[in-house]
């Protein structure tokens, strides 16, 4: 007798206490494998143990490598990433990213990148080289996604005037079709293009601007550090912009020399420690050459470990001198902020812009001011 798939799903959700839903029938082979994989991870949850709840029927013989291989076969991509995130963040199973056998086969994603950044100090050089593969793959993916947004933000708007410069992105489809209709061949349904037309693009003259990114590298800001590094790399080399990237906790580290290589930059970041935002803002203010052509972006949860009054005075001073100050509570693709609302309000009271945005939105914000 075949077990009802719907009942099997309920059994997997409920764990061992849900045995009764199967009416005495065993789990099918694949469902049993899923149950073992879930139990390997969630069976170690002490809170569930105290309530007498387990995911499966006893200790699992699975190794980390077996488990990762299994979930890749048994679950959809979104579920795999959730299981991996719980493994490295909730249960701190470090060998997910420190075991060479795992690192050679695992599929890189942002959850694993965060885990590498948190545990790279535990890795010997050989393991670190394998872990770097995860960093490179995820950064490459993020760069590809963000680069187009950044370039579009800074590429200028299309005008309706024709252009002699032939670029595919400026191809004027409507005029080209309209003015070449005389060359349409109905017998083979083809339009021969004798003269293609292109738009021109308008660009205002760009004065040199400084963009200074101050990034909190405390443990809770890992996503912000990753996306700040990628954003800075995408801004690097754009005409009219000079980018600085500064990481801080209680100390300040200027990472600008590595902005063009976000992989190397992330491998140098030391996550954790306290927070002295005022020290970072003081350092950033010392980099400013032309206040009215400078955008200073503070990316932090705003929980100041130093003197908050001194911090607010520094922010207010930058605003008063004409620097555009933007305080970001989050800088990742989800833009889910967690921050000190009291300090954020004080920043706003002295004239700083305060908000949460994705890397693409930050690029558009910078482009809006640079292209004025």
Automatic annotation (TrEMBL):
InterPro entries to which the protein is assigned, alphabetical: LolB, Uncharacterised_CoxE, VWF_A, vWFA_dom_sf
SMART domains reported in the protein's UniProt record: VWA
Protein known as: Uncharacterized protein with von Willebrand factor type A (VWA) domain
Signal peptide: none
Domain VWFA: 208-367
Organism superkingdom: Bacteria
Segments passing through the bilayer: none
Pfam families xref list: VWA_CoxE
Taxonomic placement: Bacteria, Bacillati, Actinomycetota, Actinomycetes, Micromonosporales
